[in-house]
Amino acid sequence: MDGSSFDTDVRVRLFRQFVASGEPPTAEDLAAGMQRPVAEVRAALERLAAGKAIVLQPESREVLMANPLCAVPTPFRVRSQGRSFFGACVWDAMGIAAMLGTDAVLDTSCGCCGEALAMTFRGGEALAAEGVVHFAIPARQWWENIVFT
Amino acid sequence: MLLFRGEEHVARWCAQWSQPRGAALTIDQAWRLARAWYQNKMDSAWRRATLEETEGLMASLGLGGPFWDLR
Q1: What is the pLDDT of residues B37-62, one digit of tens each?
Q2: How far apart are CA B30 and CA A95, in angstroms?
Q3: Number of domains forming the structure of chain A
Q4: I want to staple A120 with a disulfide (CB 3.0 to 4.6 A). Which of A11, A59, A116, A127 is the partner?
């Protein structure tokens, strides 16, 4: 198996486990499931991070973001199929609903006044809801460094 | 990216934080962008879109002008 194929397997397993449990798997979890050495999985995670497919935590090097999924709680929660997921921003949270492909509800609040806001996704569509999504950072900057969006 | 109740709230937030106004998308525009960007991220065939593909996506959603320029 070449490195690229292995990296794809690691990425797909990471996302599927994250979605199935609502929690990001550790490198050890992934290695155990794939019956491969942890060092190989960690190396694959580093390559995936270098390719901007995921973001690793700065010190532990465990998964911080399997974009659009975020490993830590944020003000952008998506509920679907009895589980909760978090996006790093409202666009990522919408991306979670898109990636899951299931009916979902996004809970957040107005960035200005803090009033609770929600979006409902049903049958692959975003139902009409109050609000506008504001992108503060020009596209070139988030394209170059996706973690800061 | 944050969600706001409306344009007035975007303007208030920008003034409060001394931030220039960026780009405000409708829920439908943001949903189409999110869907195109992320819906196949779990698939084995996923790969990061190229610059040209991303430019094409933005153009198809009517996202043009300096704010959306990737180059």
Answers
A1: 999 999 999 988 888 998 999 999 99
A2: 9
A3: 2
A4: A127
